[in-house]
Design brief:
Elements lengths: L1 E6 L2 E6 L10 H15 L5 E6 L4 E3 L4 H4 L4 H19 L5 E5 L2 E3 L1 H7 L3 E5 L3 E3 L13 H9 L1 H10 L3 E2 H6 L5 E3 L3 H9 L7 H14 L4 H16 L2 H12 L9
Parallel strand pairs: 2-3, 3-5, 4-6, 5-7, 6-8, 7-10
Antiparallel strand pairs: 1-2, 8-9
Helix pairs in contact: 1-3, 4-5, 5-6, 9-10
Bound molecules: 4-(N,N-dimethylamino)cinnamoyl-COA.
The site of 4-(N,N-dimethylamino)cinnamoyl-COA (DAK) has 21 residues, from helix 2, helix 3 and strand 6.
Length: about 250
């Protein structure tokens, strides 16, 4: 139900359940976790996550699996989804969700756990859980307000409304809108950062992520520490030397 492939220097995970609009069954979520682990230990420069078929990135949790479950099983399910998406969030390389159609509920939460989101012009996104008498359980209530602010997140979560691609772009929910072939567009986007030093990109991601969790004074200390760590890499020496020598740097992730 998922495919992990390699396109040049990039790992590509394709949610491949188009008959159910790539809905996230629990077994698909477990498969995703295994794929994230495999990507984490690979030499891929970035991960692209995309949905199979022309209609959907992912239509959310598999609603047919969600009925008639005990509270204990439901809580375990939430923890499973959160833990799998946390692995995605913590990958050593940046990740790009290519939202090539619908991204609802857990599908949008999957995209929110990626470093970046691109959307095709026909994309439609939302957290419609309230319409089912539910609320998001795979990180949506936590990641969405960090990305688009409390007021907008509350509006999306409490109304469950569908947001089109233009609005998603305008409010910062997606980084860019894409016109070309979605996978090619994801790869072209990843190329914009893929030749930089992975550990250095990791320090930057970590600093920015933590900015949203701590007071400014604490965040500035984190930035001082992480920017000093970046300075200690051989890649920093290479980057500055290359500038002075007027040549292109060759980073070695060290
Ligand atoms: N789950 C299962 N099957 C789905 C599905 C889903 N989320 N979405 C679509 N499908 C299936 C449809 O049942 C249909 O299958 P057949 O009837 O042909 O067998 C097939 O995919 C095509 O769908 P449609 O015929 O509906 O296609 P349309 O183009 O007409 O409509 C749509 C597309 C995306 C507007 C519509 O399919 C739709 O509204 N889908 C549901 C969207 C949604 O509500 N997603 C779930 C959000 S809730 C948790 C807590 C919360 C959650 C999870 C866990 N824990 C505490 C553990 C909540 C998570 C959510 O994601």
């Amino acid at each position: 139900m998922i495919e992990l492939t390699r396109v040049e220097e990039f790992a590509v995970i394709t949610l491949n359940r188009p008959d159910a609009l790539n809905a996230l069954s629990f077994s698909l979520i477990r498969d995703l976790g295994r794929a994230f682990d495999e990507v984490a230990t690979s030499d891929a420069r970035a991960l692209i996550v995309i949905g199979a078929g022309a209609k959907a990135f992912c239509a959310g949790a598999d609603i047919k699996e969600l009925t008639g479950r005990s509270l204990v099983a439901q809580k375990e399910g939430a923890k499973l989804g959160q833990a799998m998406f946390a692995r995605l969030d913590a990958l050593p390389m940046p990740s790009v969700a290519v939202i090539n159609g619908y991204a609802f509920g857990g599908g949008l939460e999957l995209a929110l756990a990626c470093t970046f989101r691109l959307a095709s012009r026909n994309a439609k996104v939302g957290l419609p859980e309230v319409k089912l008498g539910l609320i998001p359980g795979y990180g949506g209530t936590q990641r969405l307000p960090r990305l688009i602010g409390e007021a907008r997140a509350l509006e999306m979560i409490l109304t469950g409304r569908t947001v089109d691609a233009d609005e998603a772009h305008r409010i910062g929910l997606v980084n860019r809108l894409i016109d070309a072939d979605p996978l090619a567009a994801g790869i072209a986007f990843a190329r914009e950062f893929s030749r930089y030093s992975l550990p250095v990109l990791g320090f930057a991601r970590s600093a920015v992520t933590r900015a949203l969790d701590v007071a400014l004074s604490e965040g500035l200390k984190i930035e001082a520490d992480l920017s000093t760590l970046a300075y200690q890499t051989r890649d920093a020496i290479e980057g500055m030397d290359a500038f002075i020598d007027k040549r292109k740097p060759v980073f070695r992730d060290a």
